[in-house]
Write a sequence for this structure.
């Protein structure tokens, strides 16, 4: 096997590792593919087989050790900007029509919403401020 053959095989291995990356969306395969490309570059510069394998292992392990924890931190983050129904939860509203366990109306974020009391035994009178705890369809659940 000549040096030219070795770098071609490393590129074939990189492409082969790219296929499961796309199919499974596991970034580790991409990191291994980058390691194979680095080994192909080492082979292209005339490095021996042992050095090529070492370059593959070192680059792959370094990428997995550095990139994987960073990606895990970003995956677990919640979005900073809430929108839609999520943005309305926790906001205050003003009662427009008496709100109790069976219904009523509130003004929330400049719009009139149907509302229902979280505690079915509790009622809120006109002009009273309430907190929105949840949204179910087009009905705000308040307390």
């Amino acid at each position: 096997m000549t040096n030219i053959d070795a770098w071609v095989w490393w590129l074939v291995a990189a492409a082969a590792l790219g296929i499961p990356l796309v199919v499974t969306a596991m970034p580790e395969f991409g990191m291994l593919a980058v390691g194979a490309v680095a080994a192909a570059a080492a082979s292209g510069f005339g490095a021996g087989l042992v050095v090529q394998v070492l370059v593959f292992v070192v680059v792959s392990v370094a990428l997995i050790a550095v990139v994987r924890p960073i990606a895990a931190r970003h995956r677990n983050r919640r979005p900073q900007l809430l929108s839609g129904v999520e943005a309305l939860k926790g906001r205050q509203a003003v009662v427009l029509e008496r709100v109790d366990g069976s219904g009523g109306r509130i003004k929330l974020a400049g719009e009139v919403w149907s509302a229902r009391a979280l505690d079915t035994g509790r009622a809120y009178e006109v002009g009273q401020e309430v907190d929105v705890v949840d949204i179910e369809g087009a009905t705000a659940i308040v307390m």
User: Anything to note?
Assistant: The radius of gyration is 29 Å. DSSP finds four helices and five strands in the chain. The first strand starts at residue 92 and ends at 100. The mean pLDDT is 90.
